[in-house]
Amino acid sequence: MNDTDDTHGTDDTHETDDMVGNDAAEGLLSIGAFARRVGLAPSALRFYDDCAVLRPAHVDTATGYRYYAETQAPRAALLRRLREAELPLVDAAAVLDGPYEEAREVLRGHLGRTRESAAAARAALEEILRALPGGTRRAEVSIGGAELAGAVRQVGSAVAAGAAREEFPVLGRVLVEIDGEEIRLVATDRYRLAVRALRPLSIAGEPCELLLDIEELTETAAWARRLPEVAVEVEGRQVRVRGGGECRELAGSDEVFPAYRMVLDDLGAARHRVIADRGGLRRAVADRLDAGHQAIALTTTGDDLLIATEQPEGPEEPGATALRAIHTGPPLRIAFDPGVLLPALDASVGPDVLLEIASEARPVVIRSADQGSFTTLVMPVRNAATTS
């Protein structure tokens, strides 16, 4: 094909290139007109033609001119967006022409790699900034003492203990993120993830992240609970909490906290939503935990949520606890470790609890209507299935 004739030697097409020169190309757009329509350079369109990703609707056999149909514009626009996101061409082709599930898998994989790359670059740049003269991060936040203490209590339920903490010491810490608008406290033990966002009374300084030991943070929170307001001062990895004429100091860690945002972003749309009495659900779970059961099943039936022991040989225990519930989505059956689910229910507030479930293999989001700023994720037990 005569590519130089397509654009008269450049990516800027000549005015006559917008004109259709034969009957076969009637109603089609020249490569220049189509390029302007979809936001791609003519050279890119030629490249995508050569790679068989975006073929012209018609090629003039005499001149080699390429022509495109209006119906190709959505595909071209999607291709442009995929390439702007730096998706490799072979993956872009899978998104354009592959089955739906394959396309989602490709995009999720690229999204994860992009986040990891961005996080690594951010960490490297922050380390360089800290090493520069005057590069130490500083921030100062004023917040209610009781609010801070409540947030520490809530996320503390997801901090690892015992063998898990010995194996991964970072899971015994709480991530504290400070940005221009809020403070976030984050904790995880790999089976639970708790995130609490706080709106401070005032905030100043640079965005920063800290990893604080849960015991030190809990002790400081207990002291702060009785104070109407405390000032949190950050300098590098050192934290000072002032209030009531006293000052408490905490030391941050150099460890790397798990990339929790990737977990939140990969949850998927909720197929099921269950709203039930939090106290009733908590008692049913606690009773089975006290009885030594290692798994419980939650099943929706009509207007009820049934809570029963998950039996290794098959059906649930007789005499399951039934709670009135609001359920949206297809019929549901899902199992949990009661020792993992119970702390999440304890950390919630208000009379109701909302469970948002994408599938039996993904974390379940637990929220309360009374406090949208607190979110807990709990991993289900994999030996139960969600019925579609």
From TrEMBL:
PROSITE patterns, alphabetically?
HTH_MERR_2
**What are the UniProt keywords, alphabetically?**
Cytoplasm, DNA replication, DNA-binding, DNA-directed DNA polymerase, Nucleotidyltransferase, Transferase
Q: Which residues form the signal peptide?
A: none
Under the heading InterPro entries, the entry gives: DNA-bd_dom_put_sf, DNA_clamp_sf, DNA_polIII_beta, DNA_polIII_beta_cen, MerR-type_HTH_dom
Q: What is its main location?
A: cytoplasm
**Compositional bias (Basic and acidic residues):** 1-17
Q: Where is this region: Disordered?
A: 1-21
Where is each HTH merR-type domain found? 28-98
**Cellular compartment(s):** Cytoplasm
The domain of life for this entry's organism is: Bacteria
- Per the UniProt record, one Pfam family is MerR_1
Family of the protein in this entry: Belongs to the beta sliding clamp family.
Question: Would you tell me the protein name for this molecule?
Answer: MerR family transcriptional regulator
**Annotated organism of origin:** Streptomyces milbemycinicus
